[in-house]
Amino acid sequence: MKQLARKSNIKDVCALLDMKSNTEEVNKALDEIHEEMDKQVVTKTELNDALTEQNAINEALCAENCSARWLWKSGELQNGFAIPWEI
Question: Residues near 70 by Cβ (< 8 Å), separated by ≥ 6?
Fold first, then answer.
């Protein structure tokens, strides 16, 4: 009975189907999106300026991102818990 009570009835399903978008509404929405995208024009100069600025940011971040690799070859611990990096 509990499972049956949780299932949708035909009235609920029909109400959902009535609210569903049709092909014409979807095509109209897509046309509006295309019109807005056509208005957004980026010049070559603006693109180059943005790329130059992004490269400067990347270089600054990469300079801060230093790392090193150390090897622990012996497998022995110092003082029972510390790893002695050997190479």
Answer: 85, 86, 87
Per-residue model confidence (pLDDT) at position 30: 94
Q: Is residue 18 part of a domain?
A: yes
Among 15, 34, 16, which residue's Cα sits nearest to residue 26?
34
Does 69 map to a domain?
no
Residue with tokens 């070859």: 73
Residue 32: per-residue pLDDT? 94
**In this structure, are residues 86 and 71 in contact, taking their beta carbons and an 8 Å threshold?**
yes
Q: Would the pTM of this model clear 0.90, i.e. be above it?
A: no
Number of domains in the chain: 1
